[in-house]
Design a protein that fits this description.
mainly alpha; Serine Threonine Protein Phosphatase 5, Tetratricopeptide repeat; two-stranded antiparallel ribbon; 22 helices; 4 strands; globular; membrane; cell outer membrane; SusD_RagB_dom; TPR-like_helical_dom_sf
């Protein structure tokens, strides 16, 4: 699907041009959409364009989850950078471009999904293949749920938009409670898991499958089960660990995925997950796919987001846009055991450029230095794995440790399978804290750490303790529970006075 996702955007994006910035802007008109949706292929293209709204999702996870967490001590060594307020818990970040992007791009994706669903209802008679019509509806609903789940983890309460709205209508829709947002998400994902195929022919490989929907729904149940912290955030304090476990076991029991494992003395299995020549491997449950070498440029940008430009220059490559270094925290570096092969693959420690020696570390996990694009830094030829099989297994262990049916032996076996690939000794009687520490290293640089801390209830203890020891430059603010979520973008508050109320703490 690498070609399908983006190849139709060049022409189809014209239809969405009027709604690419803010939630308050009008969608495409009934007249223009009616003219476009004349054949089944038109609907397929529209769904493909909705997938394209995932393009910046990886960058967002690195900028808002990885940077927010204790994995990075992202203070600047030159000028004021957008990531500093995110990492340092500044309360005046409602106009931060990363936060604005998270709101606007996700709602742009929601608008595209809604437009597809609306046109299937109005003009779907041209799709005579009922199975295709159902599948396209399921894909659109999966994507709408995906965008909303991303939003609810960042912002909490949200406006629920389930059809295309005119500008005046959109500016009258207030935020619904988190509970109602989740019901909307769950309804979409239940439809998706019931109506998406288990797999696709090679030409469509990469589209959301039944198992991608099950995995996302499982994570929704787990996130809802996290603590509330007394704020209107993603945790509702529910006990839905068993609901999640059932879904995770269905993915595991399908036999369609497996962990990549080392062979003999080789230690390449972990790096093989992210290899540019091994995309779509047995670990991949759902990924975001890119196409390179086209105009406009539609490749990936996430490989360099956490990588300083001077490192590329030190290797004779062009600058990419990472600017100055966003250092890996000392806390994370010290957490790796001596023989853990994941550290050297994921993290670069030091380099020399123009006579200057940089001793701090940074994530290089997605960089294959032989694949650095020469024509555009926006055109990296690598997919982003949103959900991989190792994650499914470790989420299962988390459910069991939170009271879902299962045994300690199952938890230990899962963790030790992960540790074995990292060339580490096995553990016994694994606790939730140990599991989360293993997740921290397994998924370092993948954008999951902040979500893990919030969901597990560890954020209130881990982050304050980390700030106390890590903040040697005294640049970080005290962490308060309200910072579990981000502020509503100021631009949205300004659309219509009183429509939204700012999240507490900002």
């Amino acid at each position: 699907m690498k070609k399908i996702l983006f190849s139709t955007i060049i022409s189809f994006s014209i239809l969405f041009a009027s709604c690419e910035k803010e939630l308050d802007q009008a969608p495409i008109s009934d007249a223009s959409t009616a003219r476009f949706y004349d054949s089944p292929d038109d609907f397929v293209q529209a769904v493909n364009a909705t997938y394209a709204s995932l393009r910046a999702y990886p960058d967002r996870q690195l900028n808002l989850s990885e940077t927010r967490s204790d994995n990075l001590y992202a203070t600047s060594d030159g000028g004021v950078r957008d990531w500093e307020g995110v990492n340092s818990f500044h309360k005046t970040i409602a106009s931060n471009p990363y936060i604005i992007e998270a709101w606007s791009e996700n709602f742009n994706g929601v608008l595209k999904a809604n437009t597809v669903l609306d046109q299937i209802e109005k003009n779907g008679a041209v799709i005579r293949d009922e199975s295709l019509k159902t599948r396209l509806s399921a894909e659109a609903r999966f994507l709408r749920a995906f965008f909303y789940f991303d939003l609810v983890r960042w912002f909490g309460a949200l406006p629920i938009i389930e059809r295309p709205l005119l500008a005046e209508e959109a500016t009258s829709v207030g935020r619904s409670p988190v509970e109602e947002v989740y019901q909307f998400i769950i309804s979409d994902l239940q439809f998706a898991q019931e109506n998406l195929p288990e797999q696709y022919a090679s030409v469509d490989k990469g589209r959301a499958t039944k198992f991608a929907a099950k995995g996302l729904l499982a994570l929704v149940h787990m996130t809802r089960s996290g603590p509330t912290y007394g704020v209107k955030g993603p945790g509702l304090g529910l006990n839905e660990w068993s609901n999640a476990l059932t879904l995770l076991n269905e993915i595991i029991g399908s036999g369609k995925y497996s962990m990549l494992t080392n062979t003999g003395s080789a230690t390449t299995a972990y790096s093989d997950i992210f290899s540019y020549t091994n995309e779509g491997n047995a670990e991949v449950v759902f990924d975001i796919q890119y196409i390179t070498g086209v105009n406009p440029v539609l490749g990936a940008t996430f490989p360099w987001v956490l990588v300083p430009d001077e490192w590329f220059q030190s290797l004779g490559k062009t600058t990419q846009g990472g600017l100055t270094i966003r250092p890996v925290s000392t806390n994370l570096l010290n957490s790796y055991e001596a023989n853990d092969i994941r550290r050297n693959f994921s993290i670069q420690t030091g380099f020399t450029f123009n006579g200057k020696t940089e001793t701090r570390s940074f994530f290089k996990k997605y960089v294959d230095i032989s694949k650095v694009p020469t024509s555009s830094r926006l055109d990296w030829p690598i997919n982003f794995i949103v959900m991989r099989y190792t994650d499914i297994l470790m989420l299962k262990a988390e459910c069991i440790l939170n009271g879902a049916p299962g045994t300690q032996a199952e938890v230990d076996a899962i963790l030790n399978q992960v540790r074995s690939r990292a060339r580490l000794a096995p553990l016994s009687n694994v606790t939730l804290a140990q599991l989360m520490e293993e997740r921290r290293k397994e998924f370092a640089g993948e954008g999951s750490r902040w979500h893990d801390l919030v969901r597990s209830g560890l954020v209130e203890t881990k982050i304050p303790a980390w700030i106390e020891t890590e903040d040697v430059l005294n640049q970080m603010q005290n962490f308060i529970k309200e910072y579990v979520i981000y502020p509503i973008p100021q631009s949205q508050l300004d659309v219509r006075q009183g429509l939204y109320t700012q999240n507490d703490g900002y």
